[in-house]
Amino acid sequence: MLGAVAAGDTARWVIGDTSSGSGEGKRTHVLVKPFAPDLRTNIIITTDRRTYHIALVSTRGVAMSALSWTYPAGALLALHKAEAEQAAAQPVATGLQVDQLNFGYTISGASPTWRPLRAFDDGRQTFIEFPPSLGSGEAPPLFLVDRSGGAQLVNYRLRGRYYVVDRLFEVAELRIGGKDARSVRIERSASKAGHRS
After folding, report:
1. CB contact burial 77-87 (16+ within 10 A = b; e otherwise)
2. For a designed S-S bond to 119, which of 18, 26, 47, 105 qualifies (C-beta 3.0 to 4.6 A apart)?
3. CA–CA distance, 59 with 54 (Å, rounded to integer)
4. Is the distance from CB of 41 to CB of 54 less than 8 angstroms?
5. In angstroms, what is the C-alpha Rg of the chain?
6. Which residue has the higher pLDDT, 55 or 48?
7. Kind and range of the H or E run holding 173
8. Is the pLDDT reported for residue 40 higher than 50?
9. DSSP 8-state secondary structure symbol assigned to residue 186
10. Cβ 26 vs Cβ 20: under 8 Å
11. Can you name the residues that pair with 165 across neighbouring β-strands?
12. pTM (2 decimals)?
């Protein structure tokens, strides 16, 4: 965003600014025009990112008609943001048959902001759906709990608001914290009552 434009010789140089486009595509243009050839001055342009010091020389012949700056880091951030938005818009999985999904899971325990909304499986993978607040805070790791109560960290992928686990499990826990850990337990029912018809 343009802050200010200041020049040394404003009597023999016309200097102004304008803008084009709107929203993300809005661009600011600084316009410079000398009254005669063989004039020299300096110009300082301040923006919200940088300050530019430019030496101006007017000529009789062909002159540089445009000069622009790009910010590669800003472009890279915009690209990453666009990729993340596109990935978030993709479905969590493809080829799922709703009538084959098992929703027979119970969620119990603490009620942190990241507490899952539901869990279900397709007979091969388990999906754990979280509220939108998952993206604004700390995400809990997922542990599988065996029959003796031992916990083991399990691999999963984060797709949007879902944890996708490439296996089925009977009992799992989501935990954050050490001694005073907040934990949420997810248990799979043994019956097929959770299937949608």
Report:
1. eeeeeeeeeee
2. 105
3. 16
4. no
5. 30
6. 55
7. strand 171-176
8. yes
9. E
10. yes
11. 126
12. 0.52
